[in-house]
Amino acid sequence: MHWKNLIKEPLLKCRILHHIPGRMRIGCLAIRYLDGYENDLRERIDGLEWVKHAAISVITANIVVQYESDEVSPEVIISEMEEIISLFSIPAHQREREEKNKLTVNERRLQEEPLGSLLRNVLIGAGALTYALISEKGKVHGANHLGRLLGFTSLTSISLALPIIKSGFESLRDTGKPNADTLSSVAILASLLSGNTVSALTISVLADTAELITAFSMNKTRSAIRDMLSTGEKFVWKVLEDDNLIKIRADKIQIEDRIVVHSGEIVSVDGYIEKGSALIDESSITGEFMPREKYEKEKVFAGGVVKSGTIRVFAEKIKEDTAVARIIHMVEEATMYKAQVQNIADRFSAQLIPLNFALGAIVYMVTGSITRALNMLVIDYSCGIRLSTATALTAAISTGARSGILIKGSNYLEMLAETETLIFDKTGTLTEGNPEVKSVIPLSEDITEKELLSLAAAAEETSTHPIAFAILEKMKARGWKIPKHSVVEVVLARGVKTQLKKDIIMVGNAKFMKENGISLDESSDAVSRLMLRGENFVYVSKGDTLAGLIGIMDPLRENMKKSINRLRNLNIDDIILLTGDVEQQAELVASRMMFDRFEAELLPEDKAKFALQLQSKGYSVAMIGDGINDAPALAYADVGIALGSKRTDLAMEAADITICSDDPLTIPALINLSRSTMRIVRQNFATSIGVNSIGLVLGAMGVLPLFWGAFLHNMTTVAVVSNSLRLFFFDLNKTQLK
């Protein structure tokens, strides 16, 4: 069975093609894209105890497995094959995308066309067209073909059409296939040879206008993305050779320069500290929750905020070498991340181009009219479909960027519009990632809440654990001072302890307390109450007795419940919670948020495996996480979305879409944007095909003159491109088009 018969199957899904006891032929589309991985794949399959022999064919995307028929069922074989093939899912996904995105023909890259040049061409062309109409120079009578090409308006038409003519010729030369520019080139030259310079100028001017709008939308998108991802200060303090400081623009910094960063300023380069020390918040880069004290020789990164202190930094990476710059470049150049509908538009257009030439030849042979034949070339489907689709997707990406949403490729917009299953991480995604002390429960009448919290703060003062941060923040909020204590000892995976006056103070889990002879008998009621409220907790002991418990909770993000309700209204009917937290905590959150199901106590690789299992069943899966522990799942999902202002380089590189705000309502707004985009793309398809089909019929009948045929086609293109531009005005707060 050939791989093309599997083309509609999910990439990683295996199915039985032929089966007799002891021998099974299995088809899986992913195998087609694993050329070079056959030995690794075969080795893993042969490693299964019940497998006698395995043969793999990349050409047919098949695996033939000979096995011990009495030891294993067909269901187990398919399950094991899918699990093994999923280990190679990344190269398979990459190669599949590359193949899908190979252009059928060469097209001009409008994002590389300077806006000034396109605008100049439109203005010059409009002026020449006006001159031709007023002076009645549109028709050149009584001249030979060469003379018709050497007139003022003819030469103007040719100069304006040079990029189109060049692109059309290069497509024929390099691929042997005409593109949309080939059609336009032939139509322009034929119009000039027939003496109809008005038609030639009309084709050029309206085509340039549509391309100007498209290029403008692409340029606006790049600017929005750069503004969103900008890090660092606009101006920095550079250290001169005499150790004096000079204030210069940040983009003037060179590698090996030295800059001084003061309290409250943002580090603008990647490098190391040459002099000084500072408390630096690098949560936006490294994901580290607490600001860190950094000293000489330690690394710092662009985007880090100096909370206190002053440092002199030696610049090692600047400008385009930073991770943010690489992401911007990837977004701008992500041709392999085109939406499938855009590829369909490109291919559909390319397949119709030869049809235009054929229609032109047929009409000329039947009617003998060069004008009618030219109409078959002037009116084509490709420009409107191709340009409007690209503009719609680009405009949507730009709208997202202006609202703090980085969409790395238009294909993710399309896939998000089709998503039916959403997976949420818990910590840092559903919750704020900022644990707070909710309960302080003394277990002795001799100990007050203030004393219990003070004991815990003394033991946790030097810890960087989030629970320690919550306890210390609570002390700070109450205005209480931490009592003097001895050196803190950290016991890994247990807790911390210190000495306060004559008493040993310990803070930690139940195992830590029991190992140190602390009885927990009196805490059962308090533990039940805390667990019922969904609070994590630590025990606090003083001397040889249990002093009390402190309950800590990571609060749910504001508007998270409202966001889930809106997702339900968008017909997202399968919402799943995946978390590494304990089952009781997961169940509590899942119940409160009305999730369909949940999985708890998962490792990062378990989350990725869960997403792959859903995909193997044909589901379209979007994963929403904070981008740190969720990076594998974000990468494996059809669409990975990193949520929150505490994004990291890891999050931005693993996720397909990054939401830089902390508002969960952005998620349903983003899905609505993707669906509105695809709705506009479908409108443009229908309009382009419908209007141009009518134009072709009327042109072939001789009812539609050449000038009006060119006008109809190009105005249709301008209209559908303008329709796409409505996405620039999409209001994510109201989730509707203006």
Brief sketch in words of this structure:
48% of the residues lie in helices and 18% in strands. With 738 residues, it is of the alpha+beta class.
Description:
- It is a single chain.
- 48% of the residues lie in helices and 18% in strands.
- It is globular, with a radius of gyration of 33 Å.
- It has 738 residues and is an alpha+beta fold.
- α4 packs across α6 and α6 runs antiparallel to α7.
- It has 5 domains: 86 residues, 2-Layer Sandwich (Alpha-Beta Plaits), CATH 3.30.70; 232 residues, no CATH class; 87 residues, Calcium-transporting ATPase, cytoplasmic transduction domain A (Distorted Sandwich), CATH 2.70.150.10; 154 residues, HAD superfamily/HAD-like (Rossmann fold), CATH 3.40.50.1000; 118 residues, Calcium-transporting ATPase, cytoplasmic domain N (3-Layer(aba) Sandwich), CATH 3.40.1110.
- The strands form 4 sheets. Strands 5, 6, 7, 8, 9, 10 and 11 form a 7-stranded antiparallel beta sheet that branches. It has a 7-stranded mixed beta sheet with strand order 12-24-23-22-13-20-21, sandwiched between helices. A 6-stranded antiparallel beta sheet has the order 14-19-18-17-16-15.
- The two termini are 51 Å apart.
- About 2% of the residues have low confidence.
Helix content: 40-55%
- Mean of residue pLDDT? 78
In the predicted model, the low-confidence regions spanning at least 5 consecutive residues are: 137-142, 330-337
Radius of gyration: 33 Å
